[in-house]
Specification:
It contains ten helices and eight strands. By secondary structure, the protein is an alpha/beta fold. It has one domain (8-234): Aldolase class I (TIM Barrel, Alpha-Beta Barrel). The chain has an eight-stranded parallel β-barrel with strand order 1-2-3-4-5-6-7-8, surrounded by seven helices. It is globular, with a radius of gyration of 17 Å. The chain starts with 11 loop residues before the first strand and ends with a helix.
């Protein structure tokens, strides 16, 4: 573990990728103390998720706002200033230099940790070519991780498959947060670069973002407990 994480449960971030805050409340209630950290993406944020964020923070839960901010620097600065007041733990921005500089300025002295998204885990080299990039995924991830480190970003969001590359660039002090985690035997869905929880921990990932394998399970609490057992065994 490269970062000191006092509560092992914090290594698992449950993605509340559901359409309504009532669905989210139900999942949080089902998981109880089995989970301590939740991700809210912009689909839920636009459906009342910021109100849910405040409630979770008030209940002592940790919150990762996965909003992937990207705009001109001043607009990002102002957006991060507003979000810093919510008491959330993590916020994502896209790893464009101007965007990251604006986010760091907006965060100022707040405790909020900024995470830079290098390349979405649903992308492969062909997707990058279609988007007009001349770099392969691994090369783009390396370049953006280097830019994030020099900008003062706190951590990197990347596929677990790129963990070794990122850790080599950012060293031990920056967080690595990985979506697209799939327990053995579960469907990959739209994720193209995945690892199991144990593989990701052994690769050096600090926090695992896990959604469908938990929230769509017949027994979400049991699924979360099984994943935590795998994380504990690999830590």
């Amino acid at each position: 573990m490269t970062q000191k994480i006092n509560d092992l449960r914090d290594r698992m971030i449950v993605a509340l990728d559901v359409p309504t805050i009532w669905d989210a409340y139900r999942i949080v209630s089902q998981l109880g103390d089995e989970a301590s950290f939740y991700k809210i993406g912009y689909a839920l944020a636009f459906a009342g998720g910021l109100q849910l964020t405040q409630q979770l923070v008030a209940e002592g839960k940790k919150v990762f706002l996965d909003l992937k901010l990207h705009d001109i620097g001043n607009t990002v600065t102002e957006g991060v200033q507003s979000l810093s007041n919510l008491g959330v733990d993590f916020l994502t921005v896209h790893a464009y230099p101007q965007t990251m500089r604006g986010a760091v300025e907006g965060r100022a002295e707040a405790a909020l940790k900024l995470l830079a998204v290098t390349a979405l885990t649903s992308y492969d080299d062909g997707d990058l070519r279609d988007a007009g990039y001349g770099l392969a995924v691994r090369d783009l991830v390396r370049m953006r991780a280097e830019q994030a480190r020099t900008t003062g970003i706190d951590g990197i969001v990347c596929s677990a498959a790129e963990t070794e590359i990122v850790r080599d660039v950012v060293g031990a002090d920056m967080l690595i947060v990985t979506p697209g985690i799939r327990p053995a035997g579960s469907a990959a869905g739209d994720q193209k670069r995945t690892l199991t929880p144990g593989e990701a921990i052994r690769a050096g990932v600090d926090h695992l973002v896990i959604g469908r394998p938990i929230i769509r399970a017949a027994d979400p609490r049991g699924a979360a407990a099984a994943i935590m057992d795998e994380i504990a065994a690999a830590s």
